[in-house]
Amino acid sequence: TSRFAGVPQGPEDAILGVTVAFNADPNPNKINLGVGAYRDDVGLPFVLSPVREAERRIVHAQHHMEYLPVAGSRTFVDKAIRLAYGEHNHHVKTGQVASMQTLSGTGACRMAGVLIQRFLPALDDGPRDESPLVLLPNPSWANHAAIFRDSGCTVGQYKYYDPATKSLDFEGCVSSLEDAPDGSVVLLHACAHNPTGVDPTPEQWAKLSAVLKEKRHQPFFDMAYQGFTSGDMEVDAASVRRFVDDGHRIVLAQSFSKNFGLYGQRVGCLSVLTDSQEEALAVDSQLKIIARPMYSNPPIAGVRIVEEVLSDPELERQWRMEMKGMAERIISMRTMLKGYLEELGSVQNWDHITNQNGMFCFSGISKEQVAKLRDEHSVYLTENGRISMAGVTSQNVGYLANAVHKVTM
Ligand code: PMP
């Protein structure tokens, strides 16, 4: 008999479960608003044309398929760092940034979690007697809590979203960060917050930067959607760059899943801004020691694509343009969805659909209404009422508005 006979059946991942149910539904009008992956205006997965061109060139070049170093491709990592910190960042130039290629954004968060668990000292630089406290916004991407818990950190929350206004509870946010133990790790979504679509304004970011500094909290930025708030990679990096300019020594997770459309290729980067090149090299050495027994070295195919695109000014220009196109299509779906709901005579206020940013709309639709959408209209979304705007198209937005109107009447 199997020694694993006693393993209990675990629950299905809430987000991936939505797609399982969607796939089983025979209704031709069904809509999947669960998955956080971009779809084009006919609802299909989208490969950016510079990515296709890069792929073609790579196949043509007949590259080897040897191992990458443990820390991944240096060329890729340097380009990733520039996209985040800016072309001319002084700390980058002086070698103060420890960095490595990671298994996309998830892997970057996980590596950071282990680094924090192993090495983040107590505030007086002495030994820690407890596992480090990582504070997540309430709510956050569901996987964050699991990632930091599995990394051996203690997970807490700070106030973020106010269901009454469907926007940021800024006062609550600031006061819960002020009330937290000094020196906590604070996870911030750099832009396009998942699941709420609610981002702080530049003034609010400035205040958060001051509060974190006052409290000596460690900022950890998760930047999974750079470009998806404004359509502009530089504009969307403003929060990260502001903290760096304010003197914070940030930790940063970057994903290329969304803005390059490389989901299954697992392209990401972790960086840690330190005080000196010497310190960066020490952190680099430990990141490699963490990665080696976990997965040894990262995959090569996806980073070659990013390198190819970002090494050719014409491909880079196309990429920035098509990236903007994805963001703009989502923004136009927000306007259309809100417009249709108003036309249908909905008495609810739907301003948050257009006020929120990035891939998601935190609709305020209740758990019961989500069930009705699924059972009566074949519209699938997660229980928390999060709509992936990427699944909305000019074809299905009318049907969606009608369904939403019916369940919220
Ligand atoms: N962080 C956030 C906030 C996300 O929404 C996601 C993707 N759902 C990720 C990180 C990681 O995605 P990936 O591992 O594909 O980069």
From TrEMBL:
Cofactor(s) this protein cannot do without: pyridoxal 5'-phosphate
Protein name, UniProt field: Aspartate aminotransferase
Biological processes annotated in GO: amino acid metabolic process
Gene Ontology MF annotations: L-aspartate:2-oxoglutarate aminotransferase activity; pyridoxal phosphate binding
Organism: Chondrus crispus (Carrageen Irish moss)
Residue ranges of every copy of the Aminotransferase class I/classII large domain listed in the record: 29-403
Comment field (misc): In eukaryotes there are cytoplasmic, mitochondrial and chloroplastic isozymes.
Stretches of the chain forming a coiled coil according to its record: none
Keywords on record: Aminotransferase, Pyridoxal phosphate, Transferase
Gene Ontology cellular component terms for the protein in this record: mitochondrion
Family classification: Belongs to the class-I pyridoxal-phosphate-dependent aminotransferase family.
Reaction catalysed by this enzyme: L-aspartate + 2-oxoglutarate = oxaloacetate + L-glutamate
PANTHER family xrefs: ASPARTATE AMINOTRANSFERASE, ASPARTATE AMINOTRANSFERASE, MITOCHONDRIAL
Complex and partners: Homodimer.
Enzyme Commission code: 2.6.1.1
